[in-house]
Design a protein that fits this description.
- With 224 residues, this protein is mostly helical.
- It has one domain.
- The chain has 11 helices and no strands.
- The chain is globular.
């Protein structure tokens, strides 16, 4: 198994560890779920203009639903874990690199969400409560790394839209993937490529995402 495959599996195990920690305490799990819902709503508010613009709506929605939302990614993670050894052999190196970045972002985000849940006293969250928990957790470099990886995934997806061979391969894989129980993973890859195909100014879009997230993180960390 390649080093990339081994790292992806280790990262998915880290995610599973966080899920187990939460499952042992329903109240704690509720607080983490509240964090995820708040972040999802915040992202919708921050990028309302991009969500409603024709050329950026699909890419923004992909970030919102697939990278930043309260969605349960257990099925996708399970499917990734099943096929990682095969993916490393069959996928282009560039696509495997994107999968690795996704796994890194996923593990880091789950761990930070866990820490946020630990910092909360209840599942009731507003802007000030969230900000206080954010500052208590700290992790300035980790928050910055989240943004870097999110933007990198977007950049990689846009780059892969230029590969006709990849798009053809994914279409041909659709039936077998669903039959093999890999429909969620297949849908994720196709949705991402479709979303970024519609994006005209990819550098400008990703720069906007990065700038707004960095500004928001700075505001959260700023002293009163």
């Amino acid at each position: 198994m390649s080093e990339a495959s081994e790292e992806v599996l280790q990262l998915l195990n880290r995610v599973q560890t966080e899920r187990k920690r939460r499952s042992q305490n329903p109240e704690f799990a509720d607080r983490v779920d509240a964090v995820k819902r708040f972040q999802h709503e915040r992202f919708q508010s921050t990028y309302r203009d991009l969500l409603t613009a024709k050329d950026t709506s699909a890419a923004t929605r992909f970030f919102l639903d697939e990278l930043y939302g309260p969605k349960d990614f257990s099925a996708r993670d399970f499917q990734f874990a099943r096929v990682v050894p095969i993916m490393a052999k069959l996928m282009p190196r560039e696509l495997m690199d994107m999968v690795l970045t996704l796994a890194r972002l996923h593990a880091l985000s789950e761990e930070l969400d866990t820490e946020m849940g630990m910092a909360l006293k209840s599942a009731h969250i507003n802007h000030e409560i969230y900000r206080e928990a954010w500052r208590e957790v700290g992790q300035v470099s980790a928050r910055h790394q989240q943004i870097i990886w999110m933007v990198r995934i977007g950049s990689d997806l846009k780059g892969h839209t230029q590969s006709r061979g990849l798009r053809t391969s994914l279409r041909l894989m659709r039936g077998p993937a669903v039959a093999a129980g890999l429909g969620t993973l297949q849908s994720f890859l196709e949705t991402g490529l479709d979303a970024f195909t519609q994006l005209r100014d990819s550098p400008g879009f990703l720069a906007t995402i990065a700038a707004r997230e960095e500004i928001l993180a700075s505001e959260y960390f700023a002293k009163n």
